[in-house]
Amino acid sequence: MKSLLIALATALGINLANAVEVAGVKFDDWVQIGNREIVANGAGLRKKIFFKVYAMVLYLPEKQREAAGALNVKGPKRIGISLLRDLTAQQFIEAMQEGLAENHSAAEMAAIKDRLKQFSDVMLTIGEAKSGTLIEIDWLPEAGTRLTVSGQVKGTDIAGEDFYRALLRIWLGDKPVQDDLKQALLGKAL
Length: 190
Prior knowledge:
This protein has 190 residues and is α+β, with helices and mostly antiparallel strands. The chain has helices at residues 2-11, 67-72, 89-102, 106-126, 161-172, 179-185; strands spanning 19-22, 25-28, 30-33, 36-48, 51-60, 77-83, 87-88, 128-129, 134-140, 144-149, 152-158.
């Protein structure tokens, strides 16, 4: 049936390869992780003061309009970040750790401490990421959290969906890094 719809759309000149666009960055409406297609739940822009820092997209197995649903939906997930300015790995890590600390208790942070160090150590090997760099953080149920930078897998997969959920809370938690970005990732227009 899907093949028939694609053929029909092609014959009619309909473009099925739609893209979500944020600050000039185009993200696909859906991506395939393993043998599963996941959809762009929402996309938005991270700003710091008046600087555009990155465009971001959240892919989930099915659309979720509430943070709890996005955090707890089963299946593969992807955070896609396209840098809009040069950043050092250290800047990225510090911002990530700040977002994690804002959305987790000391006990919750202690539970992910070793995995956060593993993730941070891999990020540090990148050094500096230039504007246009694409960072993908995937949750693969059979493998764990996978970091990919400009199409290259970095480090080894990190076990535990709780770790991936902790990362998602940076943007979707009770104290997100930016409220309007949280709303955009949940597909809500402001």
